[in-house]
Amino acid sequence: MTQELLSTIIVLLFLVAAALALFHPKLANTATWRATVTPLASIIGSGFLVLAPLLVREFGVGAVLVMAGLCVLAYLVGSAIRFNIAVFDHPDHPQRLSEWRIERASDWALAFAYVVSVCYYLNLLGAFAMSLTPADDPISAKLMTSAVLVFIALLGWRRGLHGLEKAETVTVGIKLAVIAGLLAGMAWYTGLQAQAGALQLKDGHFNWDTFRLAFGLLITVQGFETSRYLGDAYDAPTRIRTMRYAQWIASAIYIAYIALAGLSFPAEDVGLRETAVIGMTEQISPILPILLVAAALAAQFSAAVADTNGCGGLAEEMSEGRIRPKAAYIGMALLALLLTWTADIYQIISYASRAFAIYYALQCALATLLSHRRGDHRPRTVGFALLTVVLVMAAVLGIPAE
């Protein structure tokens, strides 16, 4: 049996085992898992596809340190949002004008972040859709992105998007099953590299520019904030607990993924395209590129639909009904089309990271104010304030990969 065939068998075994577990009724039908899946799906989204090539190219084996740093920052920001769920969202909490203004400003930042993230999702969808075809070039990918954007906007205008959003649970299960197969294949491949004495132990270059680039990747660990907006379906303790679960699971997956990639693939051989992960995984098993493209298409489309819905709902709420969701869908699509044709994928990632950094900074500012007014835990207040400063820095300093 060849090593390539054995790798393919390992990938498929873990993929099938993960799928059986994820779709088993005893897990899939529990409220805890359903509440965990929504933030988990957002965290392990598009970033999973572009992170490994980008980080390995820039940081080599040290990429895992950058990934761990992003995960720690995300978890700390998550603690601020969990505090806001417990305090600000409590029905007995008397909302003051200053708190309400910060919350409303963060809603506007989130609405803009949704627009940029939809553009980001669908640009990756276009790139991956074209990656295994003869028309694998940036223009064809942008045309595909534009077509899907127009489709989503028109569908939302005519019929609404809630029906399509229900497909998210299935696409999340498929994506996580593919990731399980990918990680198993990468672990096997890394073991082979270790036996051959071919592990990659070269550090990347850490300097001011790469530090700023890391800030520009904040969107890749974003998504846990969705737990805050599930109040109609789950109580506050459930949302707080399952947000933690989602961040723990996502962090473990991301760190293992980047560690294996950094040890296995020479930084100088990693491609510059956003689809470079296909070339990397092809070395492990010929079936992985096909699986990744399939998972990418399903995941990007469902994530784009979910964020389009979110943007429409926020626009209606913030305008007090003056902007209907249908109009917001069209406006979002026009802005996303403009971004698609004026920026490359790494610039879009950086813009999205800035937008989410502003949203998170405002949420941390709200947590700082709430904690200060409670006056019962000074170190917590100082910690939230420091997080606010760090996230403002991320919004100002983050740059795209070149």
What would your notes on this structure say?
It is a single chain. 76% of the residues lie in helices and 0% in strands. With 402 residues, the chain is mainly α. It has a single domain (3-397), classed as Amino acid/polyamine transporter I (Up-down Bundle), CATH 1.20.1740.10. It starts with a helix and ends in a 5-residue tail after the last helix. The mean pLDDT is 83.
Per-chain topology:
Layout: H1 3-22, H2 25-28, H3 31-43, H4 47-59, H5 63-86, H6 97-131, H7 138-158, H8 162-165, H9 168-195, H10 208-215, H11 236-264, H12 276-282, H13 288-318, H14 325-342, H15 345-374, H16 378-397
Gist?
With about 400 residues, the protein is mainly α. The protein has one domain: Amino acid/polyamine transporter I, CATH 1.20.1740.10. The protein contains 16 helices and no strands.
